[in-house]
Every structure is written in C-alpha cells, then in structure tokens.
C-alpha cells in the first residue's frame, strides 16, 4: 500500500495453490480483518479472480492494471 505521506508498505503476504477468486477473497478479507480500510485504488495484474475479489471486498474502489504486467504481456505477445 501507499500511506498518505507516500510511504510504501507491505500489507500482507500469503502462499496459495492457485490465483483463484476464493484465494484472493480470503486474502483480502484477512487484510480487512487486520484493519485495512479506506481503499481507493487497487493496482494489479489482470487476473480475473483477483479483479473480482477486489470489486467484492473493496466496493467503490477503482482498479487499474499494473503497467509492468501490461508491458510484459505486450512483449510476450509480439516476441
């Protein structure tokens, strides 16, 4: 995350056997249970499970595709 003063912070880590909606829903739920609130923007890769979990857990927040992931996908497609 990025705090109000611009400091970047690791919010959490987890190991899962897939990037399913269920995994991401549980991960985001755990962040909220530990006090995460006021989420305005989530930047991530375009994995459908992650996007769906973000929209469900942080209703009203915006989602943006990560530029690094986007560029990697473009390079892989044209290589």
From TrEMBL:
Key words of the record: DNA recombination, DNA-binding, Transposable element, Transposition
Answer yes or no on keyword Lipid metabolism: no
Q: Which biological process annotations from GO are given for this protein? A: DNA transposition
Q: Indicate yes or no for the key word DNA-binding.
A: yes
GO MF terms held by the record = DNA binding; transposase activity
| Role summary | Required for the transposition of the insertion element.
Family of the protein in this entry: Belongs to the transposase mutator family.
Q: What is this protein called?
A: Mutator family transposase
Query: Source species, please?
Result: Rhodococcus rhodochrous
């Amino acid at each position: 995350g990025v705090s109000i003063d611009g400091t970047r912070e690791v919010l959490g880590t987890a190991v899962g056997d897939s990037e399913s909606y269920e995994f991401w829903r549980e991960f985001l739920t755990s962040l909220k249970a530990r006090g995460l609130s006021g989420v305005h923007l989530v930047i991530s890769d375009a994995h459908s499970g992650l996007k769906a979990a973000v929209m469900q857990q942080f209703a009203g927040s915006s989602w943006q595709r990560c530029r690094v992931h986007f560029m990697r996908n473009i390079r892989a497609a044209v290589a």
